[in-house]
């Protein structure tokens, strides 16, 4: 099985590219979704977050108040480090397990979509790094369109390795500044290159 690590800044179009790759036949594993599952009500990770960040970080129904936690961790690097230390080890363990299982498995392509692929060193476990890129103002506009405040949106981008540095580690780069059709064309071209049959 071929394993692609898909990464890129927040708002750079990873999820859009992952959807196209899934349509083309890849299996997609999304690190954000793994992190969400690990922080569902009743999990040890959520209990630890509530212990460290206070019960106010939970909504009345006991679920994680994600916008509230985002506002804290993306404007305060120390708080972000604390969250990362709680949540990254279990997320990484699951991703490593899934990648190892895929290696033992059959043919096909596994795409692991990980915003912090390079920052966490998980790129060493994949065969190729694919990077989505967009101009800073495009990424910021997309994040604001999701309802994030400009401060939180800028905080997320500041918490990630700069796009130019990421590009030094990438095998294939997808520019998402244009239309979705343009993005799709680039993805199909790369897909054809790795799946020549
Ligand atoms: C802080 C949380 C609760 C905010 O949730 P929310 O639903 O508002 O945002 P979402 O998860 O969609 O994240 C938005 C984007 O921020 C970026 N991001 C998320 N966490 C981090 C982080 N710790 N450091 C840098 N960027 C991050 C990603 O690009 C992500 O796609 C959530 O992001 C979280 O649990 N983060 C820690 C887990 C993590 O690091 N995930 C990313 C890769 S494993
Ligand atoms: N040409 C394009 N390519 C990709 N996405 C585009 C394009 N034009 C507009 N978009 C939109 O921009 C947004 C990109 O956000 P997306 O969720 O794919 O980014 P992301 O890299 O996964 O971000 P995050 O890491 O924050 O989850 C989507 O709403 C998508 O529909």
From TrEMBL:
Keywords: ATP-binding, Coenzyme A biosynthesis, Cytoplasm, Kinase, Nucleotide-binding, Transferase. One of its GO terms (cellular component) is cytoplasm. Belongs to the CoaE family. Pfam families: CoaE. This is Dephospho-CoA kinase. GO terms for biological process: coenzyme A biosynthetic process. It comes from Desulforudis audaxviator (strain MP104C). PROSITE patterns: DPCK. NCBIfam families: dephospho-CoA kinase. GO terms for molecular function: ATP binding; dephospho-CoA kinase activity. ATP binds at residues 11-16. It is an enzyme of class 2 (transferase). It comes from the Bacteria. Gene3D superfamilies: P-loop containing nucleotide triphosphate hydrolases. Its main location: cytoplasm. The keyword tRNA-binding does not apply. It catalyses: 3'-dephospho-CoA + ATP = ADP + CoA + H(+). Catalyzes the phosphorylation of the 3'-hydroxyl group of dephosphocoenzyme A to form coenzyme A.
């Amino acid at each position: 099985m071929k394993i692609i690590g898909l990464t890129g800044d927040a708002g750079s179009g990873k999820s859009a590219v992952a959807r196209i790759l899934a349509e083309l036949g890849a299996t997609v594993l999304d690190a954000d979704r793994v992190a969400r599952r690990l922080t569902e009500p009743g999990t040890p990770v959520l209990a630890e977050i509530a212990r460290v960040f206070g019960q106010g970080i939970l909504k009345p129904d006991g679920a994680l108040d994600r916008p509230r936690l985002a506002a804290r961790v993306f404007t305060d690097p120390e708080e972000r480090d604390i969250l990362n230390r709680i949540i990254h080890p279990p997320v990484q363990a699951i991703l490593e397990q899934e990648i190892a299982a895929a290696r033992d498995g059959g043919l096909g392509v596994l795409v692991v979509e990980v915003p912090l692929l390079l920052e966490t060193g998980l790129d060493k476990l994949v065969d190729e790094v694919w990077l989505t890129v967009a101009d800073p103002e495009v990424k910021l506009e997309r994040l604001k369109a999701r309802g994030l405040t400009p401060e939180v949106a800028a905080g997320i981008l500041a918490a990630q390795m700069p796009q130019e540095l990421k590009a030094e580690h990438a095998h294939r780069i997808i520019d998402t500044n244009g239309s979705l059709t343009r993005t799709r064309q680039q993805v199909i071209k790369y897909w054809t290159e790795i799946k020549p049959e």
